[in-house]
Amino acid sequence: QTEKMENNETEWIESPHGWEDEDEEEDNEHNSMDSFFDNPDPRDSFHFQVVTQNKDDDTPPSSMSKTIKVAGFKLDSNETAKSTGVTLWHGSTPLAKYIMMNSTEYIKDRNVMELGAGLGLVGIVAHCLGAKQTVLTDGDTNTLKKMRENVKHNFDNGDDDTKNTISCRQLLWGKEHSQSLKDAYGTFDTILASDVIYTPTSIDPLFDTVVTFLKKPHGRFLLSWFTRVNGVTIDTVLDAAKCRNLDWTETKEGIYIFVLGQDK
Q1: Residue 235 · residue 204 · CB < 8 Å
Q2: 15-60 per-position pLDDT tens digit
Q3: I need a labelling partner for 45 at 20 to 30 A (CA). Which of 23, 86, 165, 262 fits?
Q4: Which of 198, 255, 261 is nearest to 232 (CA)?
């Protein structure tokens, strides 16, 4: 099934303007992200220390740590200008830290999906924290290649359990693109996303995808949004959530947590 789904993937690249029409790109050059992308040395790697706590009632409390390394490209590289997901954006580390500090509530023994997973850091951390099933998704072809390399690098030990519980899948946002993946994996207890909103036209497809995959009634969508460009406002994002009957709170760390509201 894994090989079949990968063979059916569509060639798709998300630039910083990936959701905009060409005419709109020209009209909005002053709000574009193009000024980021001019570094001649593109390669970069990013590290994150995952600490897991053992709270078994039968044993004394203990902790274990693992250093996650994901490889990609610098934010100001031409590669990132072509495919936004091949770098580590500012919202990824805060979200990784938040789920590490709250793993019992959101991650451990839960089915977890990451949208716009990019290099895969947050999803890889979720797997290390004991997620029952972790599905990292992105639409971009180049990004998926780097994501799969990073998952293999961090878990390349031949462990069948790892192979069966963490996977990388292509997912273009919107209800029309979601059914085959939903048929394969069902719904999720926790959906994660960090710095995935770059243009106004991406907001509705994002939340349509969230409500498609969020488990009812207690699923949670955690959004870390630290890179805000192209005139997108938090009010616009929250209005889209409200239209889909999603309630939300904001943590002191700046993470938005969405939950399906009660039917009126």
Answers
A1: no
A2: 555 545 444 444 444 445 555 555 567 899 999 999 987 665 566 6
A3: 165
A4: 198
Question: Where do we find the tokens 């574009």?
Answer: 32
CB 62 within 8 A of CB 93: no
**In this structure, what are the phi and psi dihedrals at residue 40, rounded to the nearest 5 degrees?**
-75, -15
Phi-psi region of 263 (alpha: psi -120 to 50; beta: other; left: phi over 0): beta
Degrees, nearest 5: CA angle 147-149-191: 30
pTM score of the predicted model: 0.84
The separation between CA 177 and the C-alpha centre of its own chain, rounded to angstroms, equals: 17
Q: Which of 247, 191, 253 is nearest to 219 (CA)?
A: 191
pLDDT tens digits, 74-101: 988 888 888 899 999 999 999 999 999 9
| Cβ atoms 184, 170 nearer than 8 A | no
**Residues paired with 190 in a beta bridge:** 112, 220
User: For residue 150, what are its two tokens?
Assistant: 């990073």
